[in-house]
Inverse folding.
């Protein structure tokens, strides 16, 4: 009864993983493709990969991705996070919001963890339903209605809130009532038409 033989490094497998994540991969994903930490360090030294942050790497010759910074944050969250609030509004191109920080919602169970949160990341905690999440490119984002409700609860400025809600309704991104948005905008003249 011996130990299993080591997995042979499989560049194609590592590439497929990174390809779905805008050229990024984690130490664990590399290990799954047969790359030891020593071999990964060697690839960094010879310029085949670069270290983005602790435990997250990038294939150097992979084309730059539109949401690479967000994918790195998502990988930091062990793929448990969902982009939300103003970040989600921006990804959906709802309103003129230009978020200065990245908003990420993690499961409630993460609230107890001691985390070294990446710079410019704001954490929120909620156990999201599958219906409250969807993919925008290579990142998972709260649904438009969940995003609008989150923004209403977090007191997004009334003008941006109204603009985002109107655009979402006009583009058919939400159905039904936006009661939390309407309630938040009531003191400011409501949603309007």
């Amino acid at each position: 009864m011996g130990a299993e033989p080591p997995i042979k490094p499989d560049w194609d497998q590592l590439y497929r993983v990174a390809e779905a994540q805008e050229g990024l991969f984690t130490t664990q994903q590399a290990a799954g493709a047969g790359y030891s930490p020593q071999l990964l360090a060697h690839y960094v030294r010879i310029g085949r990969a670069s270290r983005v942050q602790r435990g997250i790497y990038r294939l150097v010759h992979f084309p730059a991705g539109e949401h690479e910074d967000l994918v790195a944050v998502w990988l930091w969250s062990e793929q448990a996070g969902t982009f939300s609030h103003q970040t989600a509004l921006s990804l959906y191109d709802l309103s003129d919001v230009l978020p200065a920080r990245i908003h990420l919602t993690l499961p409630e169970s993460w609230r107890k963890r001691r985390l070294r949160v990446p710079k410019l990341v704001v954490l929120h905690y909620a156990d999201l339903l599958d219906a409250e999440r969807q993919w925008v490119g290579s990142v998972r984002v709260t649904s438009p209605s969940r995003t609008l409700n989150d923004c209403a609860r977090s007191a997004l400025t009334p003008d941006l809130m109204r603009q985002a809600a109107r655009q979402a309704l006009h583009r058919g991104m939400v159905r039904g009532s936006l009661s939390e948005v309407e309630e938040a905008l009531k003191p400011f003249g409501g949603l309007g038409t």
